[in-house]
Amino acid sequence: MEARAEAKYLRLSPRKVQLVVRMIRGRPVKEAEALLRFAPSRAARAVGKVLKSAVANAENNLELDRDTLKVSRAYVDEGPSTKRVQPRARGRADIVTRRSSHVTVIVAESGG
Hints:
The structure is a single chain. The protein is α+β, with helices and mostly antiparallel strands. Helix content is 37%, strand content 36%. It has a single domain (2-109), classed as CATH 3.90.470.10. The chain starts with a strand and ends with a strand.
């Protein structure tokens, strides 16, 4: 049995969030939480919330034991980008792309 949690439209670049998600993929939940707690990244806080929600879903909805859970899958999808105009010198303008991401964490019982 597996439980999942998603966070959509996070105002973080998918490329930066993927670095954090790679750290926790395949690890036991306790180890993943410890890694995220001390990771010096804004994305780590957001991924930590999603992981916590997935564990809560597993405990409350599926009645799974927290100690046997591991992060079976975790991935980041690209959300919509907003485009803004940044004024530059001599009357020119640059386009600033503000990226967003969708984070999904799936936890499942480990084999033993």
